[in-house]
């Protein structure tokens, strides 16, 4: 969890404690407020100490519980402010995967140049529908999220229309390990690799493959996307990070350019893809 995010969460906790201690009807103890809200008393102290992220419902209940329902708007604005950068999967996937894809589509549509690094999966912009479907199912199982798989697949496929607009450029870097990952059936992966090989040479796509045997100047680490040098979207297990600070964007661009030095392109990239495809067929 980022320092900025934790500081914002602690700041919100301090405000919650202040409201509890200054309740119009008289100061409330944490235990009294917990009883009033029907919560375990530990939840009150976790929220106040910045050890748990409040939900919108938590904040609405807190404001009512301390007798100041009018402060809910302020508390919710604070929450939305820091969650706009750190978007927890728990919250994002509460309504399924489709809304997440729609948010991505809006940002992609307003971009002209996108740089992506993926170390474990094929980039979404280059996925087949069957491969995307397998990915969504895996994550729905992991997070216990709403199953809206087909809506999410359609949304991801619509995003790929961006690739067929002149003047745009998708610079994709993929670690060879992602080509081997059987997150789907071998037949689906074989078809996915076929499509990936077919993207080599497309005028709006620059596809680089970093072979497993390549010398790396930095560790492969996690996947991230840089949109028009204005926004970075990176994924972690707990959240998706949306970063628009200029220094952070520059740091990710430097990492992307460093990884690019280890990539192969054109016929060499196709050869890596086809070699992996042959090994998958052997399954």
Can you characterise this structure?
With 283 residues, the protein is an alpha/beta fold. It has two domains: 3-84, lambda repressor-like DNA-binding domains (434 Repressor (Amino-terminal Domain)), CATH 1.10.260.40; 89-281, Endonuclease, Chain A, CATH 3.30.870. It is 53% helix and 13% strand. The protein contains 13 helices and seven strands. It has a seven-stranded mixed sheet. The chain is elongated, with a radius of gyration of 23 Å. The mean pLDDT is 93.
Strand coverage percent: 5-15%
Helicity, in percent?
40-55%
Euclidean distance between termini CA atoms: 39 Å
Outline type: elongated
CATH architecture descriptor name of the largest domain? 2-Layer Sandwich
Task: From the 3D structure, determine the CATH topology of the largest domain.
Answer: Endonuclease, Chain A
**Tell me about the biggest sheet?**
7 strands, mixed
Number of helices: 13
How many distinct beta strands? 7
Rg: 23 Å
Characterize this entry briefly.
The chain has 283 residues and is α/β, with parallel strands linked by helices.
What is the secondary structure topology, with strand pairs?
Blueprint: H1 3-21, H2 30-37, H3 41-48, H4 56-65, H5 72-83, E1 86-88, H6 89-92, H7 98-109, E2 113-118, H8 129-143, H9 149-159, E3 169-175, H10 176-180, H11 186-199, E4 205-210, E5 224-227, E6 231-235, E7 239-243, H12 246-260, H13 266-281
Parallel strand pairs: 2-3, 3-4
Antiparallel strand pairs: 1-7, 2-5, 5-6, 6-7
């Amino acid at each position: 969890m980022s320092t900025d995010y934790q500081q914002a969460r602690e700041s919100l906790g301090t405000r919650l404690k202040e409201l509890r201690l200054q309740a119009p009807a008289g100061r409330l103890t944490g235990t009294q407020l917990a009883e009033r809200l029907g919560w375990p008393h530990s939840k009150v102290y976790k929220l106040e100490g910045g050890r748990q992220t409040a939900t919108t419902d938590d904040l609405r209940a807190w404001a009512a519980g301390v007798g100041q329902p009018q402060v809910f708007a302020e508390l919710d604005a604070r929450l939305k402010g820091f969650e706009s950068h750190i978007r927890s999967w728990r919250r994002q996937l509460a309504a399924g995967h489709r809304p997440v894809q729609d948010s991505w589509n809006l940002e992609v549509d307003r971009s002209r140049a996108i740089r992506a690094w993926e170390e474990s999966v094929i980039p979404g912009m280059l996925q087949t529908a069957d491969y995307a479907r397998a990915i969504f199912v895996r994550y729905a199982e992991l997070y216990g999220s709403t199953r809206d798989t087909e809506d999410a697949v359609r949304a991801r496929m619509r995003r790929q229309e961006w690739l067929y607009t002149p003047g745009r450029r998708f610079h994709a870097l993929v670690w060879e390990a992602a080509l081997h990952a059987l997150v789907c059936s071998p037949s689906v992966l074989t078809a996915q690799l076929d499509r990936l090989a077919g993207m080599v040479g497309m005028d709006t796509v620059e596809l680089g493959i970093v072979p497993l045997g390549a010398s790396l100047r930095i560790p492969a680490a996690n996947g991230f996307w840089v949109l028009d040098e204005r926004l970075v979207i990176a994924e972690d297990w707990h959240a998706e990070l949306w970063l628009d600070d200029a220094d952070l964007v520059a740091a990710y661009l430097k990492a992307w350019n460093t990884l690019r030095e280890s990539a192969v392109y054109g016929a060499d990239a196709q050869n890596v893809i086809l070699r992996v495809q042959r090994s998958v067929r052997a399954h």
